[in-house]
UniProtKB/TrEMBL annotation:
It comes from Arthrobacter ginsengisoli. InterPro entries: TAT_signal (IPR006311), YcnI-copper_dom (IPR012533), YcnI-like_sf (IPR038507). Residues 36-182 form the YncI copper-binding domain. Pfam families: DUF1775 (PF07987). This is Uncharacterized protein YcnI.
Length: 263
């Protein structure tokens, strides 16, 4: 295809191509983010209470999700599941190998090891849902907490439990475990916030991953419309500049449409 020698049109087409490429990358990012169970913390500061939102996508191709089992890391003693009208929630406890003394001086011999959400009706693969836990983060700034999550479906299951090796990018794993990295308080004493270490949950794309697929489709349509508008606007600008650059030919006296007829 021969590219026009018009510099304005050439710049317009180049800008449109760049915008189109950016849009394609954004769409690919949205698709990738929605493929995994991820967790979004509302805060990550050590020794504070945080709300952890687990985004549940389709995990078994076209089969609906029936149960989600979230395993708590050994550093946590308990988790409080938030009520979700689409699911029932239950705690699984385990006996500790030896008593554990807490910061307030009390001692526990059992801890909550898992939270099990059971769907009242299978979650359709075209939809997503969000499950929220309240937890007390440990006093361990810099430590990454992993939450292996088993997603059971009407047919099959997906075990989101893979842990990255030292220096490995968690996104390179096929079924990474959701994770949160604990941070220290800011120097000024304010609460510090940080993104989940294993998922895309702290960006606009990741936030969209907790919504339903219909909302994602609307976002994609809006993005495509924006790119199309950019292309049309650029071409219109090129035509406009091309027209204004042509010399204007003055009419000869008496040759206009309203000139008096010759006698």
């Amino acid at each position: 295809m021969k590219i026009s020698s018009n510099p304005v049109l050439r710049r317009t087409l180049t800008a449109t191509a760049v915008a189109g490429g950016t849009a394609a990358l954004m769409l690919a990012g949205i698709s990738g983010a929605s493929a995994h169970v991820g967790v979004t913390p509302d805060k990550t500061t050590a020794n504070t209470y945080a709300l952890l939102t687990f985004g549940i996508p389709h995990g078994c191709e076209e089969s609906g999700t029936t149960k989600v089992t979230i395993t708590l890391p050994a550093e946590l003693n308990d988790a409080q599941p938030t009520v979700n009208p689409n699911w029932t929630a239950a705690k699984v406890t385990e006996q500790l190998a030896e008593p554990r003394k807490l910061a307030d001086g009390t001692t526990i011999t059992k801890r909550t090891s898992q939270i099990v959400y059971t769907a009242k009706a299978p979650l359709e693969p075209a939809l997503r849902d969000a499950l929220v836990l309240s937890v007390k983060l440990p006093d361990a700034a810099g430590q990454t907490l992993y939450f292996p999550t088993l997603q059971n479906c009407e047919a099959g299951q997906t075990d989101w439990s893979q842990l990255p090796a030292e220096g490995q990018d968690p996104h390179s794993l096929k079924a990474p475990a959701p994770s949160v990295t604990v941070t220290a308080a800011a120097a000024d004493g304010h609460t510090a916030h940080a993104a989940s270490a294993a998922d895309t949950t702290a960006t606009p794309v990741q936030a969209a991953a907790v919504s339903d697929d219909g909302a994602q489709a609307r976002s994609w349509a809006g993005l495509a419309a924006g790119v199309g508008g950019l292309a049309l606007g650029g071409l219109a600008l090129a035509r406009s500049r091309g027209n204004t650059s042509a010399p204007v030919r003055a009419s000869a006296p008496g040759s206009g449409p309203h000139s008096a007829p010759k006698e």
